[in-house]
Specification:
mainly alpha
Length: 635
C-alpha cells in the first residue's frame, strides 16, 4: 500500500492539494486535508459541481456536518458507488478514504492523468492553478457592474472593460519580399523604422485584441493551406510552388473572364459589334477608354492650362453680363422666373431621359437585328458554297458527255483500280493493326498500373503527412516535458543519486516477479492436488461399487460374508463422514483467517479515536444548542 499511497499523494499534489513532505501515507491524512483533496479533485473533474464547495472545514459542528453531506452528495453525483456520508470525512477510515481517493484520481481528465506521471514543479502547478481559476470563473454567470453586490467581489472582476477592437499589425515574420534586394530593404525597415507591436495600434487597449486577431488569422490561413494541400495539392502531383503559380494563373483567367463579360456589352453598344479582349491589360484599357474624354485626367502644358482658364473666365463673364444689365427686379418676379426656368429644365430633362431610353431600345433592336443579319449572311454563304460545289460537279459531268463510252470505260477501270487499291490498303492495315492494338493494350495496362501505384503512393504520402504532424506534436510535448525535467533536475538536491532509484525499481520488479512465481506455483500445486483428489475420489467410488457388488453376491450364501458387507458399508460411511469433517475444518480455518483480517482492519480503522471524536463533537453540539437556546430566551 505504500506505493499506492505515494501515487495518490503525487496525483493530489498535481491538482493543487497542499500535502506536506512528511506525509507519506493515507493513514496520516487529517480531516481538513481529506476535504481539501476531495474538493480539488471534484473541481478538476466537474468545475461547476466543485466551485461552490469549500476547501476547508468551518469551525461550527453543524456547518461541518453540512459540508460533509454536500461532499458525499457530490461524490455520488460523479459516480462513486461505495458507502459514503459525512462520517467518511469527519471520522476518516483509512480503507474508505483510500478507495475514495483512488476513484477520484481515476476520474481525473486525461491531461491530468498524464500530468500525474510527470514531475511536479512550481511553474506547472502555477499554470494548472491559473487554468482551474479561469475554468471556475467561466462557469460563474456574468453580472453588469450596476447589479453587483459586495458578495460578488470574489467572482466578478472589478476592472474596467474594453471593446474588442482589432487593428492591422505589421509583424516581421508576416512580410515576404519577392527578391533578395527587397528583403534586405524590408529587414532594414523592420530594424530601424518599424515600431514595436505595442506601439502600432492607436489605442493601448487594442493591443491584445489586435495580437489575438493577427494570430487567429495566421492560424486559420495555415490550416486552410494544409487542408487544401492535403485534399487538392497532393492530387495534382505538383510541387507547392507550381501549385501556387497554377492557382494564381487560374485566378487571373477568372478575373479576365469576369472583366471581359463586363466589358463586352459596352464595346458592342459603342462599336456596333463584338470586341475581343485577349489580355487583362487590354480589358483595363477598354474600361479606361469607355469613360468620357472630359473626365480623364490628362497632363498638359502651361500654355494649354492658361488657355483653358481664360476661356472659362470669358464664358463666366458672358453668362453674368446679362444678369448685371437686366437691372433691379422684384423678388416675386425673380421667384417666378426661377420656377419657370426650373419647369423648363425639368421638361428638358424628362425629354432627354425619354430620348435616352428610346435610343437604348433602338440600340438593343439594332444589335438584335445585326446579329440576325449576320446569322442569315453566314447561312447564305454556306448555301452558296454548296451550290458552287454542285455546279462544278455538273460542269465536269457535262464536259464528259461527248465521249461517253470511252469515259465510262476509263471510269470503270479507275473504279476497279481504286477497289484493288482499297483491298490492298485494308490488308496492309490489318497487318499493322494487330501489333498496334497489342501495343495499345500493353500501354493501357501500364497506365492503369501506374495509376494504381500513384494512388497507393499518394495514400502513403497522406498517411506520412499525418504521421509527421502527429510526430511533430509529440515532439513538441516531449520537448516541453524535457524542459520541465531539466528544471526539476536542477532544483533537486544533488545528494539524490539515480542509482538508488534504479536499484529500488529493480528490487520492486524482482519482488513482483518472485510473488508472481510463488502465486503461479501455488496455483499449479492446487490444481494438481485437486486433480489427485478427484482421481482418488473416482477411484474410491469405483472400487467401493465393485467390492459392494462382489460382497453382496456372496453375502446371500455365507453369514460371515454378510457381516463383512455390513462392516464395509459402515467403513465407507465413516470415511465419508471423515472427509466431510476435514472439508468443514478447512472452511472454518478460512473463516477464522477472514475474521482475523477483519479484526486487523477494524483495529486499523481508529474506531476508539473516532468514538472519542464523536463524543467531543456531541459535547460541542450540545454546547452550541444550549447557547442558541439561551439566545432564544434572551430574545
Amino acid at each position: 500500500m505504500e506505493e499506492v499511497d505515494k501515487i495518490l499523494i503525487h496525483a493530489l499534489k498535481q491538482v493543487g492539494t497542499e500535502v506536506s513532505e512528511e506525509t507519506d501515507s493515507v493513514k496520516q491524512f487529517s480531516s481538513e486535508l481529506i476535504v481539501e483533496a476531495v474538493v480539488r479533485c471534484i473541481r478538476v473533474i466537474e468545475p461547476g459541481l466543485g466551485s461552490p464547495l469549500p476547501t476547508s472545514l468551518p469551525p461550527g459542528m453543524s456547518a461541518r456536518f453540512r459540508v460533509g453531506m454536500s461532499l458525499a452528495q457530490a461524490c455520488q453525483d460523479i459516480g462513486y458507488k461505495g458507502e459514503i456520508g459525512y462520517q467518511t470525512f469527519l471520522y476518516s477510515n483509512e480503507p474508505e478514504i483510500r478507495s475514495l481517493l483512488m476513484f477520484l484520481v481515476e476520474k481525473l481528465p486525461r491531461e491530468s492523468a498524464e500530468a500525474s506521471d510527470q514531475p511536479t514543479g512550481k511553474s506547472v502547478v502555477l499554470q494548472r492553478a491559473i487554468a482551474a481559476a479561469i475554468k471556475a470563473q467561466l462557469v460563474v454567470p456574468w453580472l453588469p457592474p450596476n447589479c453587483r453586490l459586495p458578495l460578488h467581489g470574489e467572482t466578478q472582476s472589478p476592472g474596467s472593460l474594453h471593446s474588442f477592437h482589432a487593428q492591422p499589425l505589421s509583424l516581421p515574420h508576416c512580410t515576404k519580399g519577392p527578391g533578395k534586394n527587397q528583403l534586405k530593404e524590408v529587414q532594414d525597415y523592420q530594424r530601424d523604422i518599424l515600431p514595436p507591436v505595442t506601439a502600432q495600434p492607436s489605442h493601448h487597449a487594442s493591443v491584445v485584441a489586435s495580437i489575438l486577431e493577427q494570430h487567429t488569422a495566421e492560424l486559420s490561413a495555415a490550416q486552410e493551406w494544409d487542408n487544401e494541400w492535403n485534399s487538392q495539392g497532393l492530387l495534382s502531383r505538383l510541387t507547392p510552388q507550381e501549385y501556387c503559380s497554377r492557382k494564381l494563373t487560374r485566378l487571373r483567367k477568372r478575373i479576365e473572364e469576369q472583366l471581359r463579360s463586363a466589358a463586352l456589352p459596352s464595346a458592342e453598344s459603342a462599336f456596333g459589334g463584338p470586341r475581343s479582349t485577349s489580355d487583362l491589360s487590354d480589358l483595363l484599357q477598354a474600361f479606361r477608354g469607355s469613360t468620357p474624354s472630359d473626365h480623364i485626367l490628362t497632363k498638359g502644358t502651361h500654355f494649354t492650362h492658361t488657355q483653358k482658364f481664360t476661356f472659362t473666365q470669358q464664358q463666366a463673364a458672358a453668362v453674368t453680363r446679362p444678369s448685371i444689365t437686366a437691372g433691379p427686379q422684384s423678388e416675386s418676379d425673380i421667384q417666378l422666373c426661377q420656377q419657370e426656368e426650373q419647369l423648363s429644365l425639368q421638361q428638358q430633362f424628362q425629354q432627354l431621359c425619354s430620348d435616352v431610353e428610346q435610343l437604348a431600345a433602338d440600340m438593343k433592336h439594332m444589335s438584335v437585328t445585326n446579329a440576325q443579319v449576320l446569322d442569315e449572311l453566314k447561312q447564305r454563304d454556306l448555301g452558296n458554297s454548296e451550290n458552287v460545289e454542285k455546279m462544278q460537279v455538273k460542269k465536269k459531268t457535262i464536259d464528259l458527255l461527248p465521249d461517253a463510252d470511252n469515259n465510262l470505260l476509263k471510269l470503270q477501270a479507275l473504279v476497279e483500280a481504286n477497289a484493288k487499291r482499297v483491298v490492298n490498303l485494308a490488308s496492309q492495315w490489318e497487318k499493322h493493326r494487330a501489333p498496334l492494338i497489342d501495343e495499345h493494350r500493353r500501354l493501357k495496362e501500364i497506365c492503369s498500373n501506374q495509376d494504381l501505384e500513384s494512388s497507393r503512393k499518394l495514400s502513403e504520402i497522406k498517411s506520412l503527412h499525418d504521421k509527421i504532424r502527429v510526430s511533430t506534436e509529440e515532439a513538441k510535448k516531449k520537448e516541453e516535458i524535457y524542459k520541465q525535467l531539466v528544471t526539476e533536475l536542477e532544483n533537486l538536491p544533488q545528494d539524490a543519486s539515480r542509482s538508488a532509484y534504479t536499484q529500488r525499481i529493480l528490487e520492486i520488479v524482482s519482488n513482483i516477479k518472485k510473488q508472481k512465481e510463488e502465486i503461479t506455483k501455488i496455483l499449479s500445486d492446487t490444481k494438481e492436488l485437486q486433480k489427485e483428489i478427484n482421481s482418488l475420489t473416482g477411484k474410491l467410488d469405483r472400487t467401493f461399487a465393485v467390492t459392494d457388488e462382489l460382497v453382496f453376491k456372496d453375502a446371500k450364501k455365507d453369514e460371515s460374508v454378510r457381516k463383512s458387507y455390513k462392516y464395509l458399508a459402515a467403513l465407507h460411511e465413516n470415511c465419508n463422514h471423515l472427509i466431510q469433517t476435514i472439508e468443514d475444518t478447512g472452511t472454518i480455518l478460512r473463516e477464522i483467517r477472514d475474521l482475523e483480517e477483519q479484526i486487523e482492519t477494524e483495529n486499523g480503522s481508529k474506531t476508539v479515536a473516532n468514538l472519542e471524536r464523536i463524543l467531543e463533537d456531541y459535547k460541542a453540539i450540545r454546547q452550541e444548542n444550549s447557547a442558541l437556546a439561551a439566545k432564544v430566551r434572551e430574545g
